[in-house]
Amino acid sequence: MRKGLLVLIVGVLFSAWSCQSKKEETAKKEEPVVKEKPKPAAPTAEDVVAAGEKVYNTYCMVCHQKDGNGVVGMNPPLTQTKYVLGDKAGLIKIVLGGLSGDIEVKGEMYSNVMPPHNFLNDKQVSDVLTFVRSSFGNDADAVSKEEVAIVRAEQETK
Amino acid sequence: MKHSIKKSPKNYFKNFLTFVVTFSIFSLCLISCNSNNSEQKDVEIDPKNKFPTADSDNGGLVLPENFGAIALTDSIGRARHIAVNDQGNIYVKMRRLADDKGVLHLKDSTGNGKLDISSGFGDFGGTGIAIYKNYLYCTSDSAIYRFKMENGIVKPNTSPDTIVKGFIVQRAHASKPITFDGNGNMYVTIGAPSNACQESPRSPGSKGFDPCSQLDLQAGIWQFKAEKLNQTLQEDGHRYATGIRNAVAIDWNFNDNSLYALQHGRDQLSHLFPEYYTQEQSAELPAEEFLKIADGDDFGWPYCYYDQFQEKKVLAPEYGGDGKKVERCEGITLPILAFPGHWAPNDLLFYKGDQFPEKYKNGAFIAFHGSWNRAPFPQQGYFVAFVSFKDGKPQKDWERFAEGFTQVDSVMSTNDAKFRPVGLAEGSDGSLYISDSAKGKIWRVIYYGEKLALKD
Lengths: 158, 456
Known about the structure:
The structure holds 2 protein chains of 2 kinds.
Chain A: H1 2-34, H2 45-64, H3 82-85, H4 88-97, E1 103-105, E2 108-110, H5 122-133, H6 145-157
Antiparallel strand pairs in A: 1-2
Helix pairs in contact in A: 2-5, 4-6, 5-6
Chain B: H1 9-36, E1 67-73, E2 79-84, E3 90-98, E4 101-107, E5 116-121, E6 129-132, E7 135-139, E8 143-148, E9 161-165, E10 178-180, E11 185-190, E12 220-225, E13 231-232, H2 233-236, E14 238-242, E15 249-253, E16 258-262, H3 269-272, H4 279-284, E17 288-293, E18 297-298, E19 304-307, E20 312-315, E21 337-339, E22 345-350, E23 364-368, E24 383-387, E25 389-390, E26 393-394, E27 399-402, E28 421-426, E29 432-436, E30 442-447
Parallel strand pairs in B: 9-13, 14-18
Antiparallel strand pairs in B: 1-30, 2-3, 3-4, 4-5, 6-7, 7-8, 8-9, 10-11, 11-12, 12-14, 15-16, 16-17, 17-21, 19-20, 22-23, 23-24, 24-27, 25-26, 28-29, 29-30
């Protein structure tokens, strides 16, 4: 009797859940259609993050690690720090110009040299920074390639 | 009937609550008893060997059969190298100041077999520490000091002597590990201030300076007088060996009266020179080299590195190498043993005691701090190895002596590792002490012997 009741409850819950997830699926599928003015040329936020992750894995991960937490004493973490989440121009400057000298992040000192990454183009830099600012538990807005171009121009005229 | 006793979830909860409360009261009693009565011990002492009983989980370590471990302390902060006095008190060099103290003295003040912080002194962080002739030698990244000891203890407010001062301030590889021979000399590693002496540090494709002037006062091991005060690198230091990128693990082997060290090999071959190296090669290369060092030796950094697959020193890509060319690296002194890349050997200890089985005598324990530079592949290292020596030669079938530091199956990022072995010391009774740099856990490893079934 009791067992029967349990099975019933589980069954109801399960069907409710599958119903819900189907709804979500449908909603997801419908999304592009619902959009009234799609911009086919512009990459989606997911595309940018995916492209950024590729840049990250090639140029950044070796030091900052897969989880973005860096290496104690050497390579600083990219998680929940003002260097990453704060002023975007400052962050772009570090990527383009590199960084040397001890820096303190969340009470720890980090001493490894970061070489300039000005060999990356504006889009690669904005992609990777958008990825970093929205990954590893970070939740900050995107960086555009125009913002990168401005900082690059400033650095080059100096 | 299978289920004669019915237990509702409510009953389970009630029973659990009763247990928790009872257990808490019991534990509290135990703690207060302990702190009030130093005679009471909750560690069984086996009369046969007088060793305290090992922790039931060996403090999280995985050890060879009949060995056990006690976690002496579990979170004193960023520990580096350690020294043990004859009474089993431990001195720990801290990477950074802990409550304004750079050296911590740990002792068993409650008699429960665990250590607690007894005192702290020294206003400098660093790595190196060693007891030599009734002095505790401690190093910052720029100087070497010593504190007088009385009966194995550094008394409060002891002001240190300066043995060597004025090392070049450097950010990379700044640690100054030390060791002593039996002839009045002290040896100190001065690491290279860079990865590969590149014109543009860690930049893809950047060439190396040639010659690399970093070799003049860095990237080697220097010899000083052990007891002469106020020496300087330039005036008193003798460059004993050069071409060593960074050897945090150094020890004098009294069995053959020679200096030994392990080098941290260079990083990022494929990142800096993707045209010559795959990511797989870059994870394995170059070898972490185990070096036997004679006065005047040159091990080739930054021009050469050891490839353990080709079993030779090859030319570094910063100097025209392509992973195969040898050129100027012909004839450069080879390592006596090679480990896979980036494991970060951070301490070396030749075992002198009689407590462990015969094969350990005069063999080498090596603490591998663990890699950060093997991505996208899992990181490796993070254990203590043992290399036995036969007729003065290291045997290739070295063993993983102590494992389990990381507490996880796979380390993808260095932060995944809960503990990282960094320092080794031997007690006067032959126990092996291991320190951890992540939390500051310290273990004492004991050999209990075959007949002692101390652990269920």
